[in-house]
Design a protein that fits this description.
Number of domains of chain A: 2
CATH architecture of chain B: Alpha-Beta Barrel
Order of helices and strands of chain B: EEEHEEEHEHEHEHEEEEEHEHEHH
CATH topology of the largest domain in chain A: Rossmann fold
Number of helices of chain B: 9
CATH topology of chain B: TIM Barrel
Distance between the termini of chain B: 22 Å
CATH superfamily of chain B: Aldolase class I
Number of domains of chain B: 1
Largest sheet of chain B: 8 strands, parallel, barrel
Number of helices of chain A: 6
Largest sheet of chain A: 7 strands, mixed
Strand order of the largest sheet of chain A: 10-9-8-7-11-12-15
Strand order of the largest sheet of chain B: 3-4-7-8-9-10-15-16
Shape of chain A: globular
Structural class of chain B: alpha/beta
Number of strands of chain B: 16
Oligomer: heterodimer
Order of helices and strands of chain A: EEEEEHEEHEHEEHEHEEEEHEE
Strand content of chain B: 15-25%
CATH superfamily of the largest domain in chain A: Nucleotide-binding domain of ferredoxin-NADP reductase (FNR) module
Radius of gyration of chain A: 18 Å
Radius of gyration of chain B: 18 Å
CATH architecture of the largest domain in chain A: 3-Layer(aba) Sandwich
Distance between the termini of chain A: 40 Å
CATH class of the largest domain in chain A: Alpha Beta
Structural class of chain A: alpha/beta
Helix content of chain B: 25-40%
Number of strands of chain A: 17
Chain lengths: 268, 300
């Protein structure tokens, strides 16, 4: 009962630029976690936000896209600066099967890096579809390929890889090959279509969801999914097809900081 | 064995999901009821939407939770559909109403009543915001607030008291005299503070926050004990209950119903069911047939 779940300030050991607006922060802290689990990272006097782990064990890291006030502040931080960390939280991906496909959209690919590493180390044949709107926003494609995954890249504008959406590449792949599981993280509407595709092709899907998270440990109710009452921070962030089919919010609605429900398209 | 009736409502058990825990949406409130909470309480709701504080807002330390969420809520208009959805499932519901003035709080209460809430809980005692006036500790203000809300609604009104006052029994009596139908005791303790030693900064965005969980429990039990001696109206005893043993202790002190909040952190979403099962075991062991026999027994 006497565990502490408050952020503990740790030194940033290294900052790596991944793309024009994504940086990885390697932290001076050891955390053992499952792929897809997350930590809460605290920027003292600014805010605290959830981030998937992109490195574990002795090289714990989080990968951050510059998006709002908190992440902009993080992008100014350098080696030696202090970030607070608590976690890991939630349950991550269950690594199953002999042949799997990962689908990452935009910065969602961050959640798939440790998953690819674990799957490949277990000898699972892994294909990764990594997509973005344009070439400069492709994240971790080369790292995932280097781990030993078969790589497919898509961009909306065709500046790298196949011109089109990740879902189109997945549809083609599913018509040609049989997979044991689809793993995905990215824009929710993309994941929604992937779950539909999984159902049509009889392939289970595991998707990592994003919501406004406050406590991170299942108490405050901020990240709840209607009508199930499932909490993204505690029951997720990774959910399987069976749960996703029951979540009517999935693909369409999320709650803002006040708890008001809004359509995804209305989030800035 | 746990079935009971309080303030005219039949309940499957005495357990109440406390305000501020999980109560952001109907889906959460319904899940809490399905997980064993006899009654559920909404998050504090105000007339207008409130953004609350930045994170960190809720953290756990070695002996409890520390929170300063800052009463974030979407406002009563946006929340009415959630109340209606809870009532479609016939779940006993307490609407927790907040505001800057008695009139504002009464308006929130009236709207919540219109949407089907069974009870109103006035919350003048949140330590995590700057209150315009000390409604929780000044008897005159508390009396004015209570009677204003009482005049506005037909459903029973509970007044939630702070443990951070001198004479909680006297304040409870003030609320009773002003027409309160029940007392919820207590709100969080403190406020307290946790400082990160590496960055040398207080961890919570609001710097300080209310203490709940095990650290609060003995304080809450003492408060309920004192209130029981001062008033005749029922008490919802809340503060750090995480087991059947704790629930029984709270009832012995004088609670008719027992609030559960931080236990969701310690024992999971099914905390209500677990605590309920343990309470039944203890009731059998100690020869109680119903919870009525336990309430206030420490005073005999």
């Amino acid at each position: 009962m006497n565990k502490a779940d408050y952020p503990v300030g740790v030194r940033i050991n290294k900052v790596i630029s991944e793309t024009h607006d994504v940086k990885t922060f390697i932290l001076n802290k050891e955390i053992s976690a499952k792929p897809g689990q997350f930590v809460m990272a605290w920027i003292p006097e600014v805010d605290e936000k959830p981030f998937t782990l992109t490195g574990k064990g002795k090289t714990v890291s989080i990968t951050v896209k510059k998006r709002g006030k908190a992440t902009s502040k993080m992008h100014e931080m350098k080696e030696g600066d202090i970030l607070g960390v608590r976690g890991p939280y939630g349950h991550g991906f269950d690594v199953v099967g002999k042949k799997i496909v990962l689908v990452g959209g935009g910065y969602g690919s961050a959640a798939l890096l440790l998953l690819a590493e674990e799957a490949i180390s277990k000898g699972i044949e892994t294909t990764a579809i990594i997509g973005a709107d344009t070439e400069k926003n492709i994240l971790f494609a080369d790292k995932i390929e280097k781990l030993g995954a078969k790589l497919v890249i898509t961009t909306d504008d065709g500046s790298r890889g196949i011109k089109g959406f990740t879902t189109q590449a997945l549809e083609k792949l599913l018509s040609e090959e049989k997979f044991d599981c689809i793993y995905t993280c990215g824009p929710e509407i993309m994941m929604y279509h992937i779950v539909q595709m999984g159902e049509k092709n009889n392939v289970p899907v595991q998707a990592s969801l994003e919501r406004w998270i406050k406590c991170g440990f299942g108490v405050c109710g901020q990240c709840v999914l209607d009508p199930t009452g499932l909490r993204v921070c505690k029951d997720g962030p990774v959910f399987g097809s069976a749960d996703l089919k029951k979540i009517s919010d999935f693909g369409f609605f999320a709650r803002d900081k006040t708890g008001a429900k809004k359509e995804w398209k209305d989030f800035a | 064995m746990l079935k009971m009736r309080s303030l005219g409502i039949d309940l499957k058990n005495p357990f109440v999901l406390s305000a501020g825990i999980l109560g952001v949406s109907a889906s959460s409130l319904i899940r809490a009821h399905e997980s064993g909470a006899g009654t559920v309480t909404t998050k504090s709701i105000s007339l207008e939407a409130k953004r609350g504080h930045a994170n960190p807002t809720v953290i756990a330390f070695e002996a409890g939770l520390l929170n300063a969420v800052g009463l974030s809520n979407p406002g009563i208009d946006a929340f009415l559909p959630e109340i209606k959805k809870v009532k479609e499932k016939h779940v006993p519901l307490i609407a927790n109403a907040i505001g800057d003035t008695p009139k504002d709080i009464a308006k929130v209460a009236t709207m919540a009543e219109g949407a089907g809430a069974d009870l109103i809980e006035i919350n003048p005692s949140c330590p995590n915001v700057v209150h315009k006036k000390p409604y929780a500790s000044d008897p005159k203000l508390l009396s004015e607030l209570t009677s204003t809300v009482k005049d506005a609604v037909k459903i029973p009104v509970l007044v939630k008291l702070s443990p951070n006052v001198d004479k909680i029994g006297a304040l409870a009596k003030t609320a009773e005299d002003a027409g309160a139908d029940g007392i919820t005791a207590v709100n969080t303790l403190g406020p307290g503070m946790i400082i990160d030693i590496a960055s040398r900064k207080p961890v919570l965005d609001f710097k300080m926050g209310g203490i709940s969980g095990p650290a609060l429990r003995p304080v809450a039990v003492r408060c309920v004990y004192e209130i029981y001696e001062a008033v005749k109206i029922p008490i919802i005893g809340v503060g750090g209950v995480t087991s059947g043993r704790d629930a029984m202790e709270m009832m012995l002190a004088g609670a008719t119903q027992v609030g559960i909040g931080s236990a969701v952190y310690y024992r999971g979403a099914n905390a209500f069911k677990k605590i309920g099962d343990e309470t039944i075991e203890l009731m059998k062991e100690h020869g109680y047939k119903n919870t009525k026999e336990i309430t206030g027994a420490a005073h005999e």
